[in-house]
Amino acid sequence: MLTLQQFLFVIGGIALTALSWGSYGPVLHEGQHHLGNDRIKPLICVGLAYLVVAVIIPSIILIAQGRFSGDWTFSGFTWSFAAGTAGTFGAFGIILALTNGGKPWVVMPLVFGFAPVVTTFISLFSKNLWSQAHPIFYAGLIMVVAGAVTVLIFQPKPSPPAKTAHASKEVSQSEEPQNPLIKAAKESHKPETE
After folding, report:
1. HSE of 113 in the Cβ direction (CA atoms, 13 Å)?
2. Closest by alpha carbon to 104, among 21, 173, 194?
3. Is 161 a member of any domain?
4. How many domains does the chain have?
5. Mind listing the pLDDT tens digit for each residue in 88-143?
6. What is the DSSP letter of 124?
7. What are residue 163's phi and psi, to 5 degrees?
8. Are 38 and 96 in contact (CB under 8 A)?
9. What is the distance, to the nearest Å, from the Cα of residue 111 to the centroid of all Cα atoms in its chain?
10. Region entry Disordered: which residue ranges (predicted)?
């Protein structure tokens, strides 16, 4: 059973993650726009943010607590580094999607709709839990796919530009132009009849 403090930290952590990851796509898309829609420069900026938030600040905290030098293991480092690499490839995938016309309000729901499915499959595979997967689990997967298709089909789209009366009016070749200069030029080039 969780204590009240633990419960608040769990809820706070979930809220922080939802807020951070939920704002990631729109903020990244805006940054990309200001970097000339480049694919690589935003990734460098994301990497710098990772460096500050995930390396420098935790290192300072661990050094201040005197815990920096102990308990580093090769397997722990390798798995954690693999997780960071996966996250970085994920950031690059989002950048690719956004620079090739994907919109944050479509890309992010799809990413975060499918990410839990991938997490679950990795867990099922690594823990060999396939026999324990309930049929409702598979029904949930079908719902995720249906949700993704729904997001793609019914994504917000800009309204087509309204047709103006001027743009829709077709001018036939036989009509005389309204501009007097063009009219005079045409008349001066007409062959004279005898």
Report:
1. 19
2. 21
3. no
4. 2
5. 999 999 999 998 988 888 888 888 888 888 888 898 898 998 888 889 988 988 89
6. H
7. -80, 130
8. no
9. 7
10. 159-194
